[in-house]
Write a structure and sequence with these properties.
By secondary structure, this protein is of the alpha/beta class. It is built from 4 helices and 28 strands. The strands form 3 sheets. The chain has an 11-stranded mixed beta sheet. It has a 9-stranded parallel beta sheet with strand order 2-5-8-11-14-17-20-23-26, with no helix packed on it. A hairpin with a 2-residue loop joins strand 27 (about 185-190) and strand 28.
């Protein structure tokens, strides 16, 4: 453990694997099944447990609990389940993240460059892509998936098995019970699509042509009164294809919970 700094009050199991540059703060605990990459910084009073792998340059702030047992009645302490965390992620104060369950495939996965603000919760078998943001106290039920650059407002809750599409944004205090289309802006209780995520699309430099095509596709999908199948057929026939439109069509076709209204 070259260049590793462990505070004298911290407890690190001798079988835990810590790469160079890791810092473990006061009163934190790192259990035996944990593997930590280079230059990870762990603040005070954190607990890293379970079969958890953490990529380099992650940051854990005060009170984060990472890898504790899933909150699932079917879970058993003998289950072989995992939590996989990528690189450059930030876990703010009192974030909680659970590993997967046997029934759900056994693994919770968090990609790279994500920001989980204070008191957020990622339940068992969730999959987060890259550059996602969960604002304070946002909560994911089990088996939720977030595509890249999804954003969830504070105090929002996402139902089990829901998918959040790429570059979507969900307003604060929303109740999300159905899939959120990529590139959309949703809000409400329950959450409903209120338009496209214009600011997000601009921020990530999606070209104007694609944005205009998305606007046209969203009008057909949500304002034409057509069924989902007929709306998709009309989008294919009436809207010029581009990568963003193709991704939207694929997402809608594979939705099992239906789309936010």
């Amino acid at each position: 453990m070259e260049n590793v700094i462990i505070h004298k009050t911290a407890i690190v199991h001798p079988d835990a694997k810590l790469a160079s540059g890791v810092v473990v703060g006061p009163y934190s605990v790192v259990d035996k099944g944990v593997t930590i990459g280079e230059n990870v910084k762990i603040g005070a009073h954190c607990i890293l447990t379970g079969q958890t792998t953490i990529g380099k340059n992650c940051r854990f702030y005060t009170g984060a609990v990472i890898g504790s047992a899933p909150q699932d009645k079917k879970y058993s302490e003998q289950d072989d389940v995992y939590l996989q965390i990528g690189e450059n992620n930030v876990f703010r104060e009192y974030v909680t993240v659970n590993p997967g369950t046997v029934e759900g495939g056994g693994k919770t996965v968090i990609g790279d460059d994500n920001l989980l603000m204070a008191y957020t919760h990622v339940a068992h078998d969730c999959v987060l892509g890259n550059r996602c943001i969960m604002a304070n106290a946002a909560t994911l039920g089990g088996h939720v998936s977030l595509e890249d650059n999804a954003m969830i407002g504070g105090l929002s809750a996402v139902h089990q098995f829901v998918r959040l599409g790429r570059l979507c944004i969900i307003g604060g205090c929303s109740k999300v019970v159905q899939d959120v289309p990529p590139f959309s802006m949703c809000d409400g209780h329950p959450a409903r699509v209120v338009g496209i995520n214009s600011i997000g699309l601009k921020r990530f430099k999606v070209d104007t042509r694609a944005v205009n095509l998305l606007k046209k596709a969203f009008k057909i999908l949500f304002r034409s009164g057509l069924s989902r199948k007929h709306a998709l057929d009309k989008i294919v026939s009436d809207v010029e294809l581009c990568p963003e439109i193709e991704h939207l069509i694929s997402f809608v076709k594979t939705s099992r919970r239906g789309l936010c209204g």
